Structures are given as structure tokens and as C-alpha cells.
Protein 1
Amino acid sequence: MPMPKNPPNPAGRPAVPPPQRNYDEAAARAAAAVRAQSAEQLQWLGAIPVSKGWTLGVLNEIWTVEPDAGTVRDSAGRNVGPWWQVLTLHYLGVSGQPVSEPPTVTFADLPGGRGYASIYQQRVIGRLCRTVGRDGTALRQAGQALGGRVLRSEAPAGDLAMEFQVYPRLCVQLAWYAGDEELAPSAAMLLPTNVESFLCLEDIVVLSERLVARLAAAGASKPEGKR
């Protein structure tokens, strides 16, 4: 189930991502989808059974998911924010077993993504480059604090490239380009070509935003929580 949708904008195109207001309904439906999953499918997605539910690696942490209650808790036992709650339940509700593919495409390359590319650029890449992405050293340190792996010989183009294992079967790469006296820093978020087999288009935008938000928080050395 995609994130709660908002009405079309004046141009007739819905904004992406939609405002996150109907979280209780979205989380309840997503939790029901997880409850309907077989244990084999959840384990294929990387979840490990525990007494009241499942644990799941998310970036550099182990989270606990209780499908009966629809809750998702971080490694400190706190409820994660609603964005991460719904995203995580959606991931665990994936049907089938998509082939693992490396991150090689941008959001604009996805079917349906081109029409929202400017919105994605502003909300994801723009925010990154206005905050922690202004400096390569700060970005590297923030990324490593979230479990990001610096790519070297196998790296995509860029002055800094990092890979983030967001979920056990879903990773993204970030390619960062240093600016100069005339150009500001820039970046690209690379996704698996079949990322929509795991998350819908709206979820992909929200996931990208949340990753950038956590990078910005880590770069500022201020706890932001799992919002």
C-alpha cells in the first residue's frame, strides 16, 4: 500500500510525496499485509523471528517489528517515527522474491519518476547539498555513522560515493560531487532498477528524504530521532 495520497495540485498532478496524515490507517493496512506473510517470506526479506515478532536490520541498527500491534521499535526500544514505521511495514509486506540488482539508476530513470524528478531533486538532493552535503568530510563521517560503506575502486562517478544497506535486500548508493568557486556541490541517489518491486514510487521518495534527514542530523551531531 502506498503512503496516504493528497489531492492533485492545480496542474492536475499529485505532489510527491503526499502529506503524511493518515498514518494510523496506513500503518494498520501495512501491518495486516505483514501478518499475512509466510514466515519463509519474512525470513527471505531478512527478518529474524523473536518472541513477539521479528527483528530487522535497518541501516546501522536492528529494529523490532511486532505485526500484531503494528509497531516498529529502534535498537533503544523507542517507537520509530511514522515515516519509518510505514516504510518498514511496506518492505516486510513485499510479495515475491525479486532478483537482487545493484543501485545503478536515478529516480528520474524509474517508470513514472521523470514527471516528479524536479520535486525529488529539490526535496532530496537539494536538501542534502544545503546541509551535510556542503562538505565531503562531513558527509563521509555522517554516512559512516549510519553504517554507510565508502566505495572506492568500484565507486560510481563522483568525489565521494557511499552505499547504504537500508534494508537487508534494498540498498542505495550516493554519489557526491564537490563544488568549486563557480558551482555548488551536487549529488545523485542511485537505486536498484527494480526498486519498485520493493517499494512504490511515493515510498521511494519518502525513503530518500528520510535517509537525507538522518544524514543531515548525523552531520549536525544532533539527535533527530527516526522521523
Note: The helical segments are 23-35, 39-44, 82-92, 117-130, 136-145, 201-220.
Protein 2
Amino acid sequence: MARGALFSILQHRPVGSFLDLFSGTGAVALEALSRGYSPVWCVEKDRDALTAIRANDRGAGLNIVAGDARGLKEGSFADVSVIFADPPYDMALEMWAALAGRLRGFLSPSGVIVWECSRAVDLPGAVGLTAIDERLYGRTKFLFFEKSVNS
């Protein structure tokens, strides 16, 4: 339900590249690919999850990056339309603190970051990012961020 809702929200934004952090099985990335996003990257460090992503991809065209999202360097990606991050819920704040600054640099001018976490989590602000929306689905929360106008 939440994934369908996410893509309903995103349908009003320009389609371009899609970066799926903490990809798990790659289901969100495959959905992005099916909705016209290209290229689509998956970043995942768990060996079993990487095996699942590769099995689920079946030549669909995902770009798979094996590694910890925290290891992504400035400039690893550019002009990304949508960055989707679904870290383990108990690590959402830690991952936000580690990644928010770099993710801003990956975004296209009209790009959006979608951060999935528990509805109980409140993310702090991040330099250069503006919160633009928040949606609740059961125990799940999607937080949406864009580049700040004056940064």
C-alpha cells in the first residue's frame, strides 16, 4: 500500500534517474523502472539482499551498487530526480545524520529525497534541504525534501 501511494505522489514530478538506498529486495527500484525512471540505481550492502536484487532484476536493467550507503562519496551521483531511502527503522536518525548533506549534492535542481521511517521518528533539519511534505501509512512515514532555494 505504501509503495503504491509513494508512486502516486511522485507521478506529478518529472521522471528521470532514481537512486534507491538500502534497497533490500529491489522492489522499489523495479517499480521505479516500470514507471519510466532511468537509470535506476540500487545501493545495498547485505549479501542476501544483493542476491535477491539480482534475482528479481532478471535483466530489467537495474544498476546495482554493492556497498554501504554511508560510503557513497560526494559526486558519486548527479542530477538524480528521486532519491529514495528506506534504512532500517532503528537506524533512520543515524543514517539521516550521516547522509543528508551528501544526498543534496546528488539531486537534480527539481529532484526530491523521499525518506522512509517509522511514523514515530522526527528527522532534524538538514543544511540545504527543505521539508516539503510528510505522509503517514500505518506505521510508515514518508518525508519529502527538496534543495533549499537559497543554498
Note: The chain has one domain: 2-87+98-147.
Protein 3
Amino acid sequence: MDENKPPEEPIVTPEPDPVPAPEPAPEPAPAPPSAASQAMSSMMADAPKGGPVPFSAPPDPSVPAEEKTQAMLSWVLMFFVSFISPLIFFLISTDKPFVKRHAATGLAMAITGLCIGIGMFVVGIILALAGPLALLVIPLWGIISLAMLAVLIMGIIAANAGSRFDPPVISKIRDAIFKV
């Protein structure tokens, strides 16, 4: 056999069989809503839709960035100086209704918090006369403080987005006192 001579029959390699693509796994059926999610959705049914936080309206694109910043500052500074910050912004923003409304909401929240604090102090004093029942006021005070902190944070987010913010109780007090 000559090494330089090609073989008479060509060597044929078999084609590999095509492998079928794997079928996707079926998606599980969605879980039925839990009682907690149903309760939350029923609570939120009364809130205006479309805003960045509950109880806020959709953002208004016509609100200038300067007014958004001032409204947000009136909320943020409440962390440090309580009612003084929204009072200052309420008094100086006569020609800026967006800032005035957010400042009035902050003032109404500060007034509400002051009234609740005084009421809880009086109840604590009365319960102190009855013995250790006064200790019941402490967890209640903590819960109310956390709720007010949550409203404060929601006010900051709504002001930054350019949305009207109307928390349930505070907005009624704001409308009664400040008429904005």
C-alpha cells in the first residue's frame, strides 16, 4: 500500500442526532391572597390612587423644583425643630400654595401630636394614682410616636415627588384650622 495514495472509500462520520430543547417547567398557580393582604387592600381602597405614598395624589408636573424642595425641607426640619419649621414655611410661602399646603399639614401634625401628648400625660398622672397602671401609657406613647414618624416620612416623600399629601385625621384638622 502506497502512503501517498488516498484510500478508495471516503470515511463517513455519522451526523449526531439533534437533542430536543428542554421544555420549560410549568409555572405554579398564584397563591390565593392572604387575609392580611386582603385587609390591607381594603384599607387602601379609600386612599387616593396614583401617588408615591398612601394618601397622596399623583405627582403634579407643574410644581417647580424650588417649591418641592421647600415643602420637603418643611417636613425634614420637623425632625429637629418640631413645629417651628412648618410654621416658618407656612408664613413665608403666601404665593406658593404647594409649600403652604405641606407646611400646614406639618403644623396640623405638630398640633395633633401636642394634644395627644398632653392627653397622654394627663391619663398617665391619673393612672399613676391607681398604681402601676400608668405603665400602660408608655407602649401606647411609643406606638403613636412611630405612627407620627411614618406620617412624617410619607410627607417627605410626597413633597419630594410633587404630590398633594392628605393623611386621614391630620388633613381634616389642617382644613379646619388653616383653610388651605
Note: Residues 112 and 170 are 7 Å apart (CA to CA).
